[in-house]
Specification:
single chain, alpha/beta, Chitobiase, domain 2, TIM Barrel, 3 domains, eight-stranded parallel β-barrel, six-stranded mixed β-sheet, 20 helices, 19 strands, disordered N terminus, binds 2-acetamido-2-deoxy-beta-D-glucopyranose
Length: 595
C-alpha cells in the first residue's frame, strides 16, 4: 500500500514537471513535452534550412534570432526570491537538471508544403515542431504556418546559466481554430503613427493574430491620402497626420512579412463627413448641424461631429466607385470592410432629398432608405472578382437584405446577436462590445458636460457607467472567458469565422495605443487560436492562461513595447500567491480548474 502511494506520488510529480514548461502564447493546440532534459540551442550560430529559398522566412528568422540574442529572456515566475508556493505553470528548476545538457543545436530544418499560398482569409496556417536532442524540425503547410512556428520557438528558447536552451524535447502540432483573428484600430478619431501601427503588427504576429482591421476615417478626420481625390486629406488633422501612399504600401509589406493581413475600412453611409465634404459638400447630410442633445428629437448624431452620406445623391455612388477603384489597387486583401453601422435617422432630417423621398410615399421607412443605399453600393464594393465584404451587422438587424455569399457580418451590438445572424445564414466575425471592446471603461469624453456636477440627478452616469457608453473596462479575463460560439450547433459554429477586439480611438492616439491593447488582446489571440477551454476536460483554462499572459506582458516590455501591467509584480513572480482561493479545487465548481 505504502509503495503504491509512493509510486502514485512519483507519477504526480512527473505530471507536474511535464506541466510546468515555458508556455508560449497562444498555447499550441497540442504540445507534448519529453523527458530528455534541457536542450542547448547555439543561438549565435543558429541557421534555418528551408526546402526552398524564401526571403520572407529568412528575414523573419533573422529578426527573431536577433530578439532571442538581445533579450536573453528568462521568465521571472520560475525563480522569484520570494517564491513560496508551488511554481506554476512556467516554473522548473533548470539548474538542477542542467547536467544532462546536450551538445547543442545549430539548425532549424523547415519543410514547407506550399510556398505560394497567398496570405488571405482561410490560408492554411498549420505547422508542427519537433525538438529532440539531435535537432529541431518544422513542417508547415505554408510559409504563414512556418512563420507561426518561429514565433512559437522564439518564446520557447530561454536563457539560463549562460546558455540558450529549450527546456526539454517537445513535439507540437498547431493550427488555428478560427481563420479570422483580429484587432481593430481607429485612425479617424485620433491619428496613430505608422511606427505605432507597426508595433501592433509586431505584437499581433508574436501572438498569432492575423487580421489588422483599420477603421481609417470617420466624421472627424480623413488621414488616408488617395490620388483620385487628393483633397480628402485636407481633413487630416495636420500634414504630419496623413498616410501617404508609400506609407500604406510599406505597411502592407511590413504586415505581410509578419503574417498579418490589413483589412481597410472606409465607413459608409454613416460616420461620413471629413474628407467627403472636401470632394463635394452635397455628399454629406447634416454635416453642419449641431449634433446633440439640447433637444433630443433634433439630435443628428451619436457623437460629434455629425455627418452621413446623402444616399439619394447620385454623385455619392460615383465617388464611392472611384474610391474603391483606388483602394482595390492599394490593398491586396480579398476582404474589404465597408462599414455600415449606426445610420442615425435624425441626420436625414437635414437632407431635403431624403425628406422629399419620404414624403413621396409615406409607407417608406429608414430601413427602405438603407436598402436603396445597399442595392446601389454593394455592386460597387464587389467590383473586384472574388472580393468579400465585411459589414457591421446593424442594417441586417434592422431588416435589410444583403447577399449572404459575399458579405460577412461583424457583430458588435451584443453576444445575443451572434446566434441570430448565423441562423439567418451569414458568416460572422464576433466583436461583441460587451466583451471585446477595449475602449470601454475609461469614462466619458464629451466636453463641458454638466452631468458630472449634478451627481444625484445623474446617478447612473456618475456611479454607473462613468460616461463610458460600454462600461465596464474589459479585463483580459472577460475577453478570454467569452464563449463566442456558445449556443450554436457545430454546423452553425462553422459560420463564425473568428473574432476581433476593437479599440475605438476617441481617447486613444499614438501615445497610449499599445498600453490599451496589450496584453489584453493576447487573451483573444489565444481564444481564437487554440480556444479558451481545455480540449479534453472542457474546463475554462483561465487559470492556466494567468501565468502565460503575465509572462507575455513581461516579454513585450522586455522587447520595448509599452504593454500595461496586469498585477503587482509580486503576483507574477509568486504564481498563485494572489489567487482568490488557495484551494484550487474550489475552482472546479466555477468550471475553471486547470488540468
Ligand atoms: C497530442 O499529441 C499526442 C502525441 O502525438 C497524442 O498522443 C495526443 O492524443 C494529442 N492530444 C490531443 C488533445 O490531440
Ligand atoms: C493544412 O495543411 C495540412 C498539411 O500541412 C493538412 O493536413 C490539413 O488538412 C490542411 N488543412 C486544411 C484546412 O486544408
Ligand atoms: C428627426 O428624425 C427623427 C428620427 O428619424 C424623428 O424621430 C424626429 O421626429 C425628426 N425630427 C424632426 C424635427 O423632423
Ligand atoms: C411605398 O413604399 C412602400 C414601402 O417601401 C412600398 O412597399 C410601396 O410599393 C411604395 N409605393 C409606391 C407607390 O411606390
Ligand atoms: C447562451 O444562451 C444563454 C441562455 O439564453 C444565455 O444566458 C447566454 O448568455 C448565451 N451565451 C452567449 C455567449 O451568447
Ligand atoms: C477544497 O475545495 C473542495 C471543493 O470545494 C473541498 O471538497 C475540499 O475539502 C477543499 N479542501 C480544503 C483543504 O479545504
Amino acid at each position: 500500500m505504502q509503495l503504491i502511494l509512493r509510486v502514485i506520488s512519483l507519477l504526480q510529480l512527473i505530471a507536474i514537471i511535464v506541466a510546468v514548461k515555458v508556455s508560449p502564447l497562444p498555447a499550441p493546440r497540442n504540445i507534448t513535452w519529453g523527458t530528455d532534459g534541457p536542450i542547448q540551442i547555439n543561438v549565435p550560430s543558429l541557421t534555418i534550412q528551408l526546402n526552398q529559398d524564401n526571403n520572407l522566412l529568412s528575414d523573419a528568422f533573422v529578426r527573431i534570432k536577433g530578439s532571442i540574442e538581445s533579450l536573453k529572456w528568462y521568465p521571472a515566475a520560475t525563480e522569484g526570491p520570494m517564491s513560496s508556493m508551488q511554481p506554476f505553470p512556467t516554473a522548473t528548476n533548470l539548474k538542477k537538471r542542467f547536467d544532462k545538457r546536450y551538445s547543442g543545436i545549430s539548425t532549424i530544418e523547415i519543410n514547407v508544403d506550399d510556398f505560394d499560398a497567398a496570405l488571405q482569409l482561410g490560408v492554411n496556417e498549420t505547422y508542427t515542431i519537433d525538438v529532440t536532442p539531435s535537432g529541431i524540425s518544422v513542417n508547415a503547410a505554408t510559409i504563414w504556418g512556418a512563420l507561426h512556428s518561429l514565433t512559437t520557438l522564439q518564446q520557447m528558447i530561454i536563457y539560463d546559466n549562460n546558455n540558450y536552451i529549450i527546456e526539454d524535447s517537445v513535439s507540437i502540432w498547431d493550427a488555428p481554430l478560427f481563420p479570422h483573428r483580429g484587432l481593430l484600430i481607429d485612425t479617424g478619431r485620433n491619428f496613430i503613427s505608422v511606427a505605432k501601427i507597426q508595433e501592433q503588427i509586431d505584437i499581433m504576429s508574436l501572438s498569432k493574430l492575423n487580421s489588422l482591421h483599420i477603421h481609417f476615417e470617420d466624421t472627424s478626420s480623413w488621414p488616408l491620402y488617395l490620388e483620385t481625390y487628393p483633397e480628402l486629406t485636407n481633413d487630416a488633422y495636420s500634414a504630419r497626420e496623413i498616410y501617404q501612399t508609400s506609407d500604406i504600401v510599406n505597411l502592407i509589406i511590413y504586415a505581410q512579412n509578419r503574417g498579418v493581413r490589413i483589412i481597410p475600412e472606409i465607413d459608409a453611409p454613416a460616420h461620413a463627413r471629413a474628407g467627403w465634404q472636401q470632394i463635394d459638400p452635397a455628399l454629406i447630410a447634416c454635416g453642419e448641424s449641431w449634433w446633440s442633445n439640447d433637444v433630443y428629437s433634433l439630435a443628428t448624431s451619436l457623437e460629434p461631429p455629425p455627418g452621413q452620406l446623402d444616399v439619394l445623391y447620385p454623385k455619392t455612388y460615383e465617388v464611392l466607385d472611384n474610391i474603391y477603384q483606388e483602394l482595390g489597387t492599394l490593398f491586396p486583401d480579398n476582404v474589404f470592410h465597408i462599414g455600415g453601422d449606426e445610420i442615425f435617422g435624425g441626420c436625414y432630417n437635414f437632407s431635403s432629398t431624403v425628406q422629399a423621398w419620404l414624403a413621396a410615399n409615406t409607407s417608406r421607412t429608414y430601413t427602405d432608405l438603407a436598402q436603396v443605399y445597399l442595392d446601389q453600393a454593394i455592386p460597387i464594393y464587389l467590383q473586384k472578382q472574388g472580393r468579400k465584404l465585411i459589414m457591421w451587422e446593424d442594417m441586417v438587424l434592422n431588416g435589410n437584405t444583403v447577399p449572404k455569399d459575399s458579405v460577412i457580418l461583424q457583430s458588435w451590438n451584443g453576444a445575443q446577436y451572434v446566434p441570430e445572424l448565423v441562423e439567418k445564414g451569414y458568416d460572422v466575425i464576433v466583436s461583441s462590445a460587451d466583451h471585446f471592446y477595449l475602449d470601454c471603461g475609461y469614462g466619458g469624453w464629451i466636453t463641458n458636460d454638466p452631468r458630472y456636477l449634478d451627481i444625484d440627478a445623474n446617478e447612473a452616469f456618475n456611479n454607473g457607467n462613468g460616461g463610458s457608453w460600454c462600461n465596464p473596462y474589459k479585463t483580459w479575463q472577460r475577453i478570454y472567458d467569452y464563449d463566442f460560439t456558445a449556443n450554436l450547433t457545430d454546423e452553425q459554429a462553422q459560420h463564425v469565422l473568428g473574432a476581433e477586439v476593437a479599440l475605438w480611438s476617441e481617447q486613444v492616439d499614438s501615445a497610449v495605443v499599445t498600453q490599451k491593447i496589450w496584453p489584453r488582446a493576447a487573451a483573444l489571440a489565444e481564444s481564437t487560436w487554440s480556444g479558451n477551454r481545455d480540449p479534453t476536460t472542457g474546463y475554462l483554462r483561465t487559470t492556466d492562461l494567468t501565468q502565460r499572459i503575465l509572462n507575455f506582458r513581461e516579454y513585450l516590455v522586455a522587447l520595448g513595447y509599452p504593454a500595461s501591467p496586469l498585477v503587482p509584480k509580486y503576483c507574477y513572480v509568486n504564481p498563485h500567491a494572489c489567487d482568490f482561493y488557495k484551494n484550487q479545487t474550489i475552482l472546479d465548481e466555477f468550471g475553471l480548474h486547470q488540468t
